[in-house]
UniProtKB/TrEMBL annotation:
Transmembrane annotation, as ranges: 30-54, 66-96, 102-123, 144-163, 193-216, 250-270, 276-302
Any matching Pfam family: 7tm_1
Membrane topology label: Multi-pass membrane protein
Gene3D superfamilies named among the record's database cross-references: Rhodopsin 7-helix transmembrane proteins
Localization annotation: Cell membrane
Lineage: Eukaryota, Metazoa, Chordata, Craniata, Vertebrata
Family, per entry: Belongs to the G-protein coupled receptor 1 family.
InterPro entries per UniProt: GPCR_Rhodpsn, GPCR_Rhodpsn_7TM, TAAR
Protein name, entry field: Trace amine-associated receptor 3-like
Source species of the chain: Salarias fasciatus
Amino acid sequence: MEATDETELCFPTLPNSSCRRTVNPHSVSMTAYVTLSCISLLTVALNLLVIISISHFKKLHTPTNILLLSLAVSDFLVGFIMLFQILGINGCWYLGDLTCVIYLYFDYIVTSASVGTMVLISVDRYIAVCDPLHYSSKVTENRVKLIVLQCWLGSALCHTLLLKENLKHPGSFKSCAGECVLGMTPVAGIMNLILTFIGPVAVIILLYMRVFVVAVSQARAMRSHVAVVTLQSSGTVLVKKSELKAARSLGVVVLVFLLCLCPFYCVTISGQDTAYNLSSIAFVLNLLYFNSCLNPLIYAFFYPWFRRCVKLIVTLQILRPRSGEANVMEWD
């Protein structure tokens, strides 16, 4: 009986302080390991294709694609973060308190940067659809690069302040040996919830509701064969069909992101404390991570330029001189 009890401990040599590990049938454990490993590798590979495509081909250096590049970078990093999630799949953490804190701190930053990028994508589509005349002057490539950089730095600074006690004293919030957990004060937990979930989600929904209303009115105007540049009744400039198409495609990206993000925060809100535990919210956490694998698949479905870029990358044609100047947008 004692041997059985020991096998259920993360650290059998510390029977009084060790956490109990999750004991699953071997087939279940292997299925989970293989599935998560495949998703992790697929996430890294697909987002690397997005990063190479937008970085290499000059025709793709547009403000909107810079935002997609930022999202792809965060999704690419999520693929590596998933590897640590796999290591703790049985509820035990063997890499030490410092590694745990660094891993979860990095996870918070990447997730927050993803949410911030989604807000920026919504703002970009809002300006493109609702204020098309001033889009080119308001949304420039250099300005978007600066804002994206601020988004990442802001995310890092915000969570450095919110998690400072964890960074100063790694492992101070764990209840037993083998647990990987971060803790926040009630005030820090509320601030994190507002800054990384409630506030951004509210902004995204409001902006896309406005984009949807304008897009519907523009679509009706186009179907009625309005041949003038402006709608004389309202003075509103007709939005380019390509901008409406981009709004629809990016709307799918945003919608899928929200569907994967909301369950995680709903579970967090329903918890008794603000502790972030690897084993207690494994499903919703993996759902959030899985979103990073879905985004490139959405691009492949909606964007012909991405499919063309993948073909050029896989066949190594990007190694040819001046390949970066290829017009990969010609099929759009």
